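Researcher: Structure prediction, please.
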Amino acid sequence: MQIGITGVDGFLGRYLLSSLSQKYHCIAWYHSSVFDANNHNVTWIRGELADRTSCDLLCKNCDILIHAAIDRNYYQSNFFTFLEKNILGSLALLELSRIHQISKFIYISSISAINKHFSLPVTHYGAVKNSIECFINSYSNEYKFDACSIRLAKIFGIDKPLDRSWWYIAIKSVKQDAIYHCQPNMLIPHIYIYDAVKAINRIVETKNTKGQIYHCVDRYFSEELVADLAKQEFNSSCHVVHRSNEKDSPYWITENIDFRESYRGEESLKAYIRELGDKIDANDA
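Model: Predicted structure follows.
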């Protein structure tokens, strides 16, 4: 089985490709000029959402397509180009997947596609994600095409360069017993990169996901919680100031209980803290 992945230049795309290429032959659809030629289980295709030729080449050579790409370059400078590339480009991939009889289309969406109370999105980014989800649903219904969406929370994990990793400064400050100024009242739903990849792997392996919308969220994390867990992990005497008075928020409501095992909450965060701590040690050596 051959799995096509768009957006392999990005954070999630790199981790997805690394994971899936261990079990399947992958077709990596990349935009930048740099890629890993040493992975012999990957075929590389250079393309972008506005290029219908590369879209067609990708779709006719894979059995499953995971669409993780989004072009943010025109978000501020040319909004109509941003909409055209991301909405029409994604719909082109969806239609070409149907034409070439791909067995499954997985759209990487975001919880930004809805707001906290499961109503309409409140950002342009979320509106783009939501609009594509609508077509995913209509294709599943009109054509009986196996297409689904997975809404990911804000992803945390090790990114390159290291200081792009979320909470890098907080964890480094705690590890080095420095004073860390915690931003209060910052409660945002998150998902660990490995949990997100695991959930997507499960969708790949699930026989029928037609019209499904999955949510992939660990829980609401605050900077205070991250700093406190890091202090415990490193036995640190770091002083955290401007602590939040808010209690832990409840877990995000999920629509599909089959993914509960991906929601490991503090265990995911502790694993990330340990991983980032090791990276900090190696970087400082």
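Model: The first strand starts at residue 2 and ends at 6.
Researcher: Thanks, that helps.
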